[in-house]
Design goal:
Chain A is about 40% helix and about 25% strand. In chain A, a hairpin with a 2-residue loop joins strand 4 (about 60-65) and strand 5 (about 70). By secondary structure, chain A is α/β, with parallel strands linked by helices. The longest helix of chain A is centred in the C-terminal third of the chain and has 16 residues, at about 175-190. In chain A, helix 6 packs parallel to helix 7. Chain B is mostly helical and about 500 residues long. The longest helix of chain B is centred in the C-terminal third of the chain and has 30 residues, at about 320-350. Classes of the chains: A alpha/beta (about 260), B mainly alpha (about 500). At the A-B interface, helix 3 and helix 4 of A face helix 10 and helix 11 of B.
């Protein structure tokens, strides 16, 4: 790999806290282009938080994130994001096709309507996820797995270089899961970089080339074969680093505006 | 496709309004009063009077504006927010008036806009920096600002010697004295709303549906949301004079909610909502013009509410009444088919030796009273599935005369098909889906009515044209259906 090319995703000393409670602490992560990465860790380990921090939805308390060598605010336009499905208003009056077309907004620009080419491309993306027959359905009238496929089709339509997916396998059936896996591998083969939050240990090594084990700290990052072993998993799932977590909370309070008054 | 239908119901509503207000006693000779009302209607509908024209234009544009804006509010679940904002502008109107000592439009508008923004800021402050949830924050702002506004207005009117500008009109709205100058804010607001919606339709759709995604593709979600609440404030402020603080939210919410009943596309929803808003405004204005005493704001609200109810009940695919009618029809069909099935079973019990059978046997089979059976047979006869003859029987017998029933060819065909559906399905369940034979009947009772001919062909192929069901009874074949009940049936 050419070392001059900026990395798709570079996370440096990232600390994120929710209301002064640190969730991620001093994370360093560099992801090479063309990697298919799974982020593993127990519930509350900060997996989604990491993704949200990269997407700029949460402000980090420390450290920085670079996307293709730029700040994440600028680089974000090169990222295709598949959010968790919980935060969606399913009664909103949009059809499946409308949702996929949203992936083309970045390519269309302000004030313009979607071109015919955008529409054709969106239809192709729907077709690739086997969802073309449902194009005119209201999004809430689809099953969970179908909704997930629509969101993946939207990500496809974005033609991004880096994809971040937050638990795309949550609550989908085996067929949809296989469709998603095929899609991930296909994107990887096209040279795209994909980072997926995952929580199923049994499939992790089959699905991903690289694994990041996360629990408050980044426990390990490396090729699936190297990282997926008993010791490291024990360390990841064996409970948080309690002392670090408590002391970290004190440190966060130190930075808060109230305590600054007394300096 | 749905638009023309709605327009019909709107026309209906319009004419209803006309009838109820002017022709209540149509069969009596017109009294002077009624003639006056008719004359007024003519004056209104001819659009000759210039001041009237301005008024009508005003309510039309206001309705359109509120309808469009409402489309965004309702789909974003901001209905309560719209209501809050409309109440929050009241103190601003009072302050604007007291500062300029005149009913100058722009001063009041400016005051109202500031006051509205203050309300919005207060809501977001409360929900962001305290434990208070958004709904409580909105309730606090709504009631607090509204109370403040009423007190301010009361105070101003007292200190004025009570009676200069009728600020109370801003509470409930009024169209009296509506002039060309009052039209201007509405037009400005409408242009802003239309422009924003046309230019940013796809961005607004994305931010409304999935804000985190919208942010991820670099859209300024916060700015767009802020512009929407600014537009909403302008829309409310410009509509206040006609419809009033209290009811403006109705015109924001009801047309959009009506449109949401009908369509699943945002662009159609907005269009429909705007049209419904304009129609409500026009109709309301018309009715209130005919009946001098009726305040225009409440009448407009009632109009949009009646449109909502009409569509809720009568929409062809979603309307409650139509859904009931459909399920009633379906139940009738099922009852008819069940009666026919029972007829077949009675014939089967008689080993197909007879063509006709007495009504009492059918009653026994169906387990129903003679009255109910009578009605079921009435239905069969009405549909041409059976004929009924009162048999006097053997003339010398003193048995009471018995009603004899004979199936017509079409009745026989349908009866055979139902029995075939039932038994084929039972066989399929036992053979292919490994159901126990005593478990299949209830399922087949339902499936027989909804399984189509296509599936039947499929089942016949899968089961290689079976003759007997799991209980050893004959499954009627196509040949049986066509040839009618011949003696062959007795020997399978």
């Amino acid at each position: 790999m050419n070392s001059k090319l900026p990395l798709p995703l570079e996370i440096h000393d990232l600390t994120v806290a929710y209301q002064k409670k640190p969730v991620l602490y001093g994370i360093d992560l560099e992801i090479q282009e063309g990697s298919l990465v799974g982020i593993l860790g127990p519930n509350g380990a900060g997996k989604s938080t990491l993704i949200k921090a990269v997407m700029g939805m949460i402000r980090p308390d420390d450290g920085f994130i670079k996307i293709f060598g730029e700040t994440n605010r600028k680089g974000i336009t090169r990222v295709g994001y598949v959010p968790q499905r919980e935060n969606i208003d399913w009664d909103f009056p949009v059809t499946a096709m409308d949702v996929v077309l949203m992936g083309r907004i970045g390519h269309t620009g302000w004030f313009k309507r979607f071109s015919k080419r955008d529409r054709i491309f969106a239809a192709e993306c729907l077709d690739q996820m086997n969802m073309l027959p449902y194009a005119d359905r209201q999004i809430g009238n689809l099953s969970g797995g179908q909704q997930q496929r629509i969101f993946l089709a939207r990500a496809l339509a974005q033609q991004s270089d880096l994809y971040l997916m937050d638990e795309p396998f949550a609550g989908v059936d085996a067929v949809t899961e296989q469709t998603i896996v095929d899609l991930l591998k296909q994107l990887r083969n096209q040279g795209k970089t994909i980072v997926v939050v995952h929580h199923d240990l049994s499939t992790a090594t089959d699905y991903f080339d690289f694994l990041a084990l996360l629990n408050f700290r980044l426990i390990a990052y490396g090729s699936s074969g190297a990282v997926f072993n008993h010791d490291l998993l024990q360390k990841t799932y064996g409970g948080k680093l309690t002392v670090l977590s408590e002391i970290g909370e004190k440190k966060m309070n130190l930075n808060s505006p109230e305590s600054r008054l007394f300096k | 496709m749905s638009l023309p239908r709605i327009n019909f119901s709107l026309l209906g509503l319009l004419s209803f309004g006309l009838i109820s207000s002017s022709m209540l006693h149509a069969n009596q000779p017109l009294t002077a009063n009624e003639e006056a009302v008719l004359g007024k209607a003519l004056v209104f509908l001819s659009f000759q009077d210039p001041s009237l024209r301005v008024m009508v234009l005003g309510v039309l544009l206001m309705g359109l504006n509120c309808g469009l804006m409402g489309g965004y509010i309702v789909t974003r679940r901001l209905s309560m927010f719209g209501d809050t904002l409309s109440h929050a502008v009241l103190p601003g109107i009072a302050v604007g008036y007291s500062l300029t000592q005149s009913k100058n439009n722009w001063a009041l508008m400016l005051g109202a806009t500031f006051s509205g923004f203050a309300g919005v800021w207060f809501i977001s402050f409360l929900s962001r920096h305290t434990k208070i949830k958004t709904d409580s924050a909105m309730a606090i702002v709504l009631s607090g600002f509204y109370a403040l506004g009423i007190c301010l207005i009361a105070y101003l009117q007292k200190s004025d010697g009570g009676g200069v500008a009728n600020l109370e009109n801003y509470l409930f709205g009024s169209i009296v004295g509506f002039s060309q100058g009052d039209l201007l804010p509405i037009v400005c607001s409408l242009i802003l709303v239309l422009g924003t919606f046309v230019l940013f339709s796809k961005e607004l759709l994305a931010t409304g549906f999935d804000p985190s995604f919208a942010r991820s593709i670099g859209l300024p979600v916060g700015l767009l949301e802020f512009s929407l609440s600014a537009l909403l404030t302008f829309c409310i402020v410009s509509s206040l004079q006609i419809i009033g603080v209290v009811l403006v939210s109705a015109l924001l919410i009801i047309p959009a909610a009506t449109a949401a009943l009908i369509t699943i596309r945002m662009d159609k929803l907005l269009l429909l909502s705007g049209v419904l808003g304009a129609v409500s405004g026009f109709t309301g204005c018309f009715i209130s013009f005919l009946k001098n005493g009726l305040p225009v704001g409440p009448v407009i609200t009632l109009c949009s509410a009646s449109i909502f109810l009409t569509i809720l009940w009568l929409h062809p695919s979603q309307g409650r009444v139509c859904l009931w009618a459909r399920s009633f029809k379906r139940n009738q069909k099922i009852r008819l088919e069940n009666t026919l099935k029972a007829c077949y079973q009675v014939l089967e019990e008689l080993s197909f030796l007879e063509e006709s059978f007495p009504q009492s046997l059918l009653g026994k089979r169906r387990g129903k009273s003679s009255g109910e059976i009578e009605r079921e047979i009435d239905a069969l006869v009405r549909h041409g599935y059976a004929t009924r003859v009162l048999s006097v029987g053997q003339k010398q017998s003193d048995l009471p005369p018995e009603t004899m029933i004979t199936l017509t060819p079409s009745g026989w065909e349908l009866a055979c098909k139902m029995i075939r559906n039932h038994r084929l399905w039972e066989l399929y369940l036992t053979q292919e889906a490994s159901y126990a034979a005593d478990h299949v009947h209830d399922d087949a009772e339902k499936i027989e009515h909804i399984i189509g001919e296509k599936t039947i062909r499929q089942l016949e192929r899968i089961l290689s044209n079976p003759r007997l069901d799991p209980h050893g009874k004959l499954i009627p074949s196509q040949l049986d259906i066509e040839s009618g009940w011949t003696r062959e049936h007795s020997s399978p």
